[in-house]
Amino acid sequence: MTKAKHIKILELRKITLAKVDYKGSFQGIGKVYRKLLSWAHVNNFSNAKTNKTLTIYHDDPNQVGINNVRQSACIITDKYFEPTNGIKKLEFSAGKCAVGRYEISFFEFKNAWTEMFEWINRNNLKISTKDAFEVYQNNANTHPKKKCIVDICIPIE
Known about the structure:
By secondary structure, the chain is α+β, with helices and mostly antiparallel strands. The chain is 20% helix and 39% strand. It is built from three helices and six strands. Strands 1-3-2-5-6-4 form a six-stranded antiparallel barrel. The radius of gyration is 15 Å and the shape is globular.
C-alpha cells in the first residue's frame, strides 16, 4: 500500500516555469522532458535545488482517456528567459494546495493520487479548478531503489 510520508496544506508561492506541452499517455512525456532538460542545461537552469521539474496535469484521465491527457513538462526558472523553440513561459500561481510527499516506484503513482483524493475527501476540503501537479525532488535513476521522491499537489479552495 502506498502511503505518504506526510500530507499537509501549504500556501505555495508564485513561480515562473519553462514548459513544453504534451498530449498522450503518462509514459510518453519522457521525450518532452528530454527536450526541456536539454534546453535547461544550455540555458543554465540545471541547479537541482532551485530548478525542480514538475508535471502539470490539465485533464482527468478518467474523463478524457489515458491517451488524451494534456500535460505540461516544466522546470522552475530562477532568472529571466525568452520563450523559444517550443519552450513556453508560464507564470504559475498555485495558491493553497494539499501536498503529499511520496517515495514511490513508477507503478505506485496511481495509488498515491488515489490516497491524496481520499485524504482531501476525509478532511472535507474542496478541490479548486486549478490544475494538479507533481514536483519531483530527485532523479529516480540515482535512488538506491530507483524510487521517485515526489510531492503530489492538488489545489484546494
